[in-house]
Amino acid sequence: MLHIVHHVDYLAPAPTRGTFRFDKYMAVMVSLRESGYPITEHAPEPMSSDWLEAVHDREYVAQVLAAQVPAEKERRIGFPVTPHIARRVAHTCGGTWLAARLAMRHGYAANSAAGSHHARADTGAGYCVFNDLAVAAHRLIADGDAARVLVVDCDVHQGDGTALLTQDRADIFTLSLHAERNFPDEKARSSLDVPLADGTGDDAYLAALANALVPVLDSFAPDLVLYQAGVDPHRDDRLGRLALTDEGLEARDRFVLREARRRGLPVASALGGGYGKDPREVADRHARSMLACARENARHPPLLRPALGVPA
Fold first, then answer.
1. 3-state SS of the chain: helix, strand, coil percent to 5?
2. Which end of the chain has the lower number of beta carbons within 10 A, N or C?
3. What is the C-alpha separation between 155 and 118, in angstroms, rounded?
4. Between vectors from CA 114 to CA 110 and to CA 120, what angle results, nearest 5°?
5. Is the per-residue pLDDT at 310 higher than 70?
6. Half-sphere exposure (CA, 13 Å, Cβ side) for 39?
7. Contacts of 73 (CB under 8 A, 6+ apart)
8. Mean pLDDT for the chain?
9. Contact 128, 161 (CB under 8 A)
C-alpha cells in the first residue's frame, strides 16, 4: 500500500507571471491512480502560522498568508503569491508533516507536492514559498516524534534554504546531492554537500549517493528520514544538468528506501523538482519514484513501535 498525502489546493491556477506550471500535481495523482498499485489518499490540514513562524520570520509568514508578498520577493519565488497559493503552501507544509507521521506507522509515505528546499527565513526563492522540509523537521522534534531528523535531498538543485534554516541545529542533518553548476549560483553549506559534475550518469551518481548516505545513516543515527525526491536529475529534464535514466532514478529511490528501512527508519518523501514541456511525462516520473519507494518499503517488515497518536 502506498500512503499518499494530497489536497485539492495543491493544484493552483496558472500564474499570471512566471513560467512555473502547477498542472503536474494533478497529473501525478492521475498517474498513480492509473498504475493499479494500491494507494490510500490522505488530506492534510494546513500548517498553522505558529509552526511556520518557528522556522520562517513572522513578518514573511504574515505576508504570505495575507497574499501580500512584496514584488521583489515574488520575483525571487518566480510567481505571484495569490490567496490560492497562500492556501496551497500552508497545506503542502502540513502535507509533508502528515507524510512523516504516516511513515512512522507504515514505513513509508509520500507527499504529492512540496520539497520546497529553496525557501529561506524571510523570503521564498526558486518556485518555493515556505520550506516544508525544515518546518516538518522542526515540528517532529518539538512534538517529541523524533530526536534527530535526516533530510536527504536528491533534487538536481542544492537544498540551500533547508541548509540555512537548520544550520545551527545539531538534531537536523542535511545531505544534498546536486549538480555543482546548477541553481542556486551561490550555494549554502549543508551538513554534507555532494556536488556533481554536469552529465553525471547512473553509475557515478549511485556510487556518490552510497558513499555519502550510508556513513551518515550510521554516524548521525536519525529517527526519521525526510526525502526530497526530485526527478530533475533525469537526463531529459528541462532545468537539470545531470544524466540519470528512468532506471537510474528508480535505483536511487530504492537505495534510499532500502538503506533507511533496513535500519528500521521511517521515510517520508516530498515531490521536489521536475520540469519539462509535457506535464504528464514529468508527472509519470514522479509517480514512478513514489511507486519505487513503496515497493521497496514492502520488502521490509512493518515498524515495531509506531509513535502514539500516529494516523492509521
1. 40, 15, 45
2. C
3. 11
4. 135
5. no
6. 23
7. 60, 63, 123, 124
8. 94
9. yes
What's residue 268's pLDDT?
98
Cis before 184? omega within 30: yes
The reported pLDDT for the residue numbered 226 is: 98
Give phi and psi for 83, each to the nearest 5: -55, -35
Amino acid (1-letter code) at residue 271: L
C-beta of residue 232 within 8 angstroms of C-beta of residue 153: no
pLDDT tens digits, 22-71: 678 889 999 999 999 999 999 999 999 999 999 999 999 999 999 999 99
Beta bridge partners of 206: none
pTM given for the model: 0.94
What is the C-alpha to C-alpha distance for residues 298 and 42, in angstroms, rounded to an integer? Answer: 19
Catalytic (active-site) positions: 118
| Residue 194, strand partner residues | 177
For residue 209, what are the contacts with CB-CB under 8 A and spacing of at least 6? 154, 177, 194, 252, 255, 256
Contact between 233 and 75 (Cβ < 8 Å): no
Report whether pLDDT(190) > 50.
yes
115 vs 10: CA distance, rounded Å: 13
The 3-state secondary structure of 140-185 reads HHHCCCCCCEEEEECCCCCCHHHHHHCCCCCCEEEEEEEECCCCCC
Which residues face 6 on adjacent strands? none
Dist CA 200 CA 44 (whole Å): 36
Q: For 195, phi and psi rounded to 5 degrees?
A: -75, 135
Q: Which residue has the higher pLDDT, 15 or 223?
A: 223
